[in-house]
Queue: 2 jobs
Job 1
Amino acid sequence: MKELWVEIPSSASSSEKDKLQKLAADKADFLLKDNCARNSSGSEVTVISNFDEKTIRQLKRKGRKIALKLRVKGKEDENIAVKAADLSTDYIIIDCLNWRVIPLENLIARTRNKSKLIAQVENAEDAKLVLETLELGTDGVLIYPSNSRDLTKAIAIVKEQEPKVSVIPAKVNVVKPISTGARVCVDTCDLMASGEGMLVGVQAAGFFLIEAEVHENPYVQARPFRVNAGSLSMYTLKSLQKTQYLSELNAGDEVLIVNREGEARSASVGRIKIELRPLILVEAEVEGKKIKTILQNAETIRLVNPKGSTPVTELKAGDEVLVHLASSAGRHFGVSVPDETVIER
């Protein structure tokens, strides 16, 4: 799990400081103040701002946890961070002043399994960048939130890196070829594995797990970046809280990628392809609810099941597929409205 460190700016108002203090006490791993980081369980980390081998060794002999706070302005500072890691400094907090990504990549590679690397960031968007750099990301972030809203966003990004989605087996009861229609291929900027894909459905209350094109066949190469997601009027999940029509997706948008265990992550859309293709309706029943999806009728479109996946062309009544049931409340532009009742069929 990634760590969230918080330092409350002295410029924040008294009321805002109180809000930040409460949020940090509840959600942050450490609150940094006066060269000491503390958490709610009583753990302390001594924060030093200058690299001194003798000081680090003395503090380590006393059993103290240490964090070196370092501004990275060039290669020399990067090398100092590595020296500190070699001395088993517990944390290295870095502030990359000019170049951000390349020094981070270097330090993630050079300090891994020696020290925990914490990147100083200004906002939640920067937190997302550093946590994904070099795929592994930093071990956490130190943020100076100007208000409680910024800290809430950072908490969502740092502490919810690995959301879980409930996926359960459902029994197929209808497989029905229908007329030609517009279907959407979602080409992402990521690679997906077997059993991984997107959740797609007619109703915002029920989604089928459609596998990415990860399987090779004699006629088409695998395209593990792609989900042939279905009719353009289908819903998909952009996040755990928000749906979107497939027709509305554009390059640069984010979609939710899910596997059969319910592990979820975000991926950026690289391209959307909308073409006229023969379609097929699939209906399944689970927990007394009937849910549906409309997909392209072709062998490369597969629905994930508990043990593998089945091409939609081979699907039949009685087969099991994995689905996600969401709230049956109404939605306004993809956001759940709990008090609104909507009937979808």
Job 2
Amino acid sequence: MLFSLALMLLCAIVLSGVMQKMKLPGLVGMILTGVILGPYALDIIAPEILNISADLREIALIVILTRAGLALDIEDLKRVGRPAMLMCFVPATFEIAATTIFAPMFFSITHLEAAIMGTVLGAVSPAIIVPKMLKLMESGYGKKKSIPQLVLAGASVDDIYVIVLFTSFLGMHGGSNFSFENLVKIPIAIIVGLFFGIIVGLFLAWLFKKIHMRDTVKILIILCMAFLFVTLEAAIKQYIPISGLLAVMALGGTVLKQYDILAKRLSDKFSKIWVAAEILLFVLIGATVDISYAAKAGIAAVILIFVALLIRVCGVFVCLIKTKLTIKERVFCSIAYLPKATVQAAIGGIPLVAGVAAGNTILTVAVLAVLITAPLGAIGIDVTYKKLLQSNKDDIME
């Protein structure tokens, strides 16, 4: 196990550096490391690590979402308003609808199976988008119109919407009817998650002001609460829907609102933790990718993915109607909403296990979507943000 960890970290660091030298995002090298060392290629990663891969990925995601919360000013979100709400579900809905319509034209599958495929493909990856948006917030690009906050908020919530739809469509395939009750759970999960996050955030801000302790201890306390949120989500979801990851972000945002000096210090420390967490997250995502499935997909799957992405971009533009964003800024939001990885790695194989006839096809397209959109979106953000977004320096010059 220790040998596997050492090899994963060293190879990821080397390949990440190579990619950066080639003007590509480092995470491409990390994902490539996972693909090469994973069970579908060299099979070097220890089974003990692969057995807890989902938990390790979730921990890494909690780290970056906590950091996002500590940097996400609630006033910025208020300024964004309606578009942020629409970005939570409209682009995903457009992509799911497009996949449902077009997938049967490319593959011998039913429209219900195509809808399941659409929900597998529909979620963007907060693991890729959140750190990119945090970088923009720190550098000042898009700050005047709160564009990074808009993308970050939407990307953090649309996973909830997509997974609920995925569960509903999968249930329909198993013989049950589509449950509108499940759709009602989406706003409830968001509200309950925000409530828990804000309440605990208020308590921790008060506690940290009253009792002197090292920042390292504060980070451990915040992480423990974040782990409890995610655990609580799994424990009570049958009774009360709650978004644990949204609660994590709400906790961080509340601490920032109540105790901004501390929040900035802790955010810096979380950024250092993220250096290691990022490597684990993307290497393990890469390890879930079976290249043999991608090889079987053929040109039809590639065309379907790009058609669905094009319709998704239309969904982003619909969300931004009647906003003050320029065409360039709207194009950037569309590019930032392309990358997929986290959700696809988590649920891509479930239809196959559940006995869906098109399960193999769904998994194949999901794998290919990760391989195409993760680097495409990450590279797109890195290459275009300086050209498409206004920086603080531009505001000063004006």
